[in-house]
Amino acid sequence: MQEVKDHYSVALQTSLTIHRDRRRFLRGTLRELCLLIKDQIGLLGPKILFVWMALSFSRDEVLWLLRHIDIWPVSSGKKAKHADEVIDKQLPELLHYILELRSLVQQHEGVIQRYYSQYVTGYDALVLTDIVQSVEKLDEKESVLLSDFCADLLRISNQTMDLRGLRLDWFRFQAYVSIGRSSFSLSSDRRLAVTMNTTVFHLKMIDLLDEMLRETSDLSIYWFV
């Protein structure tokens, strides 16, 4: 119990400063990222992961502030100090950059889709084909599933807007090899697992951009839409 009290005391003393510094850093980072992308729209393709990271970190900080602003413990004689420490008058600026970055993704989703459709067919499909051909101990069903997955990757274009079936094939394969009678262990072939997971992420950049925006930066619970 004393250890919990100690951690509680440390959190009260340090968390406000930590989160305030994070929000300050994110404001500057998002501002620069927005300027960079508006100047070089093509960077949305190869740098989209940084966009998701920036949006996700910013969303988390906004949620932390809004959830704590009215419940932060304060003694009766420190209300004025509490207001200065907890209320962030620059929060609208952070929200502005979040919305601006979201808007850039929505306006130029075609750039992202074209980049990743070409990346999947020109790189992921070829690398996965080589990996699958070298994998041992696969039974017929598992081998056919992976081979068909690679073949389907080669036929993808930026006009292909529903890739759920491909992602489900990867989940089916994991289910097949997780049962006891399968002679293949996914943990023994890390390269296959990493490449498949990376490819699945790339597929999401083609047909699930709206879902990615929702996952990384949805603030509709507070009416920031």
UniProtKB/TrEMBL annotation:
It comes from the Eukaryota. GO terms for cellular component: SCAR complex. InterPro entries: Nck-associated_protein-1. Pfam families: Nckap1. GO terms for biological process: cell migration; cell projection assembly; cortical actin cytoskeleton organization; neuron projection morphogenesis. Belongs to the HEM-1/HEM-2 family. PANTHER family: MEMBRANE-ASSOCIATED PROTEIN HEM, NCK-ASSOCIATED PROTEIN 1. This is Uncharacterized protein.
